[in-house]
């Protein structure tokens, strides 16, 4: 049963304990329609962004995937380090920030982690913000951080952000499938260049990136093994209605997060995407508490029982606001992804 309309949210300032200036996120969403007002996003890195230059061990990259049928596994000479890679997608130039460990072994299949940024942000800064690679060891996977495009979402609202898939097109101006196609093309490029474990492709992101983590988990759930959306904007882009434009495919594991004092996207929107995944993965109502080093007294994290695929939920501490719960999110999300 659909819940009552939540109404239009007005322009809000993002909450952050980090010293850096915050950026802002996507439009507020009612139950059946998306408002054209904006909500603040908050990726506020506490580290200096990485440079765009390749690391010294890098070798020149190709501009497009290889065209033959030879697998990348076993092929020597793959580029390592960090750089922005350009590819075409539906006739448009797109780019993503790539991070490959210097000890990359082409005979080993690597998991791939996709980090998704929020409004008016980019992949290179999202790498530092999520801090997934700051966890040791950091050579267990390959990482990519794609850039969204600047789009005119309404006559009065232009921003860098993600098209939230076919269902969002039904009731809002925030839908579309070009970004899903871009993810497909990015993954194809990575498969052509590197030895990937296609059974261990993951995504996580915050704010508008949290929305898009849910979107790829639903509409590319046969590709992504697990997703971890943080501070996402409800479930307006997910097929909660029988007349939805498209169904989900596959069943990824999900770890959903939302701040109990999120001043940008109200906490009431968090349980909406949590409950979608609880239903989708056939979970029961019983939960098991989860405890993590660094968690505060007002953190509440649980794992749902009886799920076809794992579902976790964290209502995280008030001090984090709209930001990721930095005390444990990077460490615990990496540990969770490595468990698959």
Q: Helical percent range?
A: 10-25%
Largest sheet: 10 strands, mixed
What would you call the structural class? alpha/beta
Strand content: 25-35%
Number of strands: 14
CATH architecture tag of the domain at 27-52 and 76-251 and 263-269 and 319-338: 3-Layer(aba) Sandwich
Overall shape: it is globular
Name the assembly state.
single chain
CATH fourth-tier homologous superfamily of the domain at 27-52 and 76-251 and 263-269 and 319-338: Alpha/Beta hydrolase fold, catalytic domain
Q: How far is the first residue's CA from the last residue's CA?
A: 33 Å
* Strand order in space, largest sheet: 3-4-6-5-9-10-11-14-13-12
Total number of helices: 6
What does this structure look like?
The chain is of the alpha/beta class. 19% of the residues lie in helices and 26% in strands. The protein has six helices and 14 strands. The strands form three sheets. The chain has a ten-stranded mixed β-sheet, with helices on both faces. Strands 1-2 form a two-stranded antiparallel ribbon. The protein has a two-stranded antiparallel ribbon with strand order 7-8. The N terminus is likely disordered.
Can you give me a brief rundown of this structure?
The protein has 340 residues and is an alpha/beta fold. The protein has helices at 123-130, 165-171, 178-193, 208-219, 270-280, 329-338, and strands spanning 27-29, 34-38, 81-89, 92-100, 110-116, 142-146, 149-154, 157-161, 196-206, 226-230, 253-259, 287-290, 300-304, 311-316.
List keywords for this structure.
single chain, 340 residues, alpha/beta, Rossmann fold, 10-stranded mixed β-sheet, two-stranded antiparallel sheet
């Amino acid at each position: 049963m659909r819940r009552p309309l939540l109404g239009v949210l007005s322009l809000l300032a993002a909450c952050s304990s980090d010293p850096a200036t915050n950026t802002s996120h996507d439009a507020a969403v009612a139950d059946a329609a998306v408002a054209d007002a904006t909500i603040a996003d908050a990726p506020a890195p506490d580290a200096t962004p990485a440079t765009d230059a390749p690391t010294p061990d890098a070798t020149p990259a190709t501009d497009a995937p290889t065209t033959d049928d030879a697998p990348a596994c076993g092929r020597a000479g793959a580029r390592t380090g960090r750089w922005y890679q350009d590819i075409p997608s539906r006739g448009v130039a797109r780019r993503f920030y790539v991070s490959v460990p210097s000890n990359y072994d082409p005979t080993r299949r690597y998991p791939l982690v996709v980090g998704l940024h929020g409004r008016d942000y980019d992949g290179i800064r999202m790498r530092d913000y999520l801090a997934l690679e700051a966890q040791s060891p950091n050579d267990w996977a390959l990482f990519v951080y794609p850039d969204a495009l600047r789009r005119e979402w309404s006559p009065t609202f232009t921003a860098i952000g993600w098209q939230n898939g076919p269902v969002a097109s039904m009731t809002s101006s925030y839908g579309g499938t070009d970004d899903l196609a871009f993810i497909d093309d990015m993954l194809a490029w990575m498969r052509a260049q590197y030895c990937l474990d296609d059974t261990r492709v993951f995504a996580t992101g915050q704010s508008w990136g949290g929305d898009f983590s849910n979107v790829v988990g639903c509409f590319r759930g046969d590709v992504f093994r697990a997703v971890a959306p943080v501070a996402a904007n409800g479930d307006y882009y997910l097929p909660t209605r029988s007349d939805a434009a498209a169904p989900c495919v596959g069943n990824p594991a999900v770890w959903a997060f939302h701040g109990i004092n999120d001043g940008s996207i109200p906490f009431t929107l968090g349980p909406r995407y949590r409950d979608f995944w609880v239903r989708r993965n056939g979970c029961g109502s019983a939960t098991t508490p989860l405890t993590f080093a660094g968690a505060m007294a007002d953190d509440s994290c649980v794992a749902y029982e009886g799920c076809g695929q794992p579902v976790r939920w964290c209502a995280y501490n008030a001090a984090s606001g709209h930001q990721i719960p930095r005390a444990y999110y990077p460490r615990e999300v990496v540990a969770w992804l490595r468990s698959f």
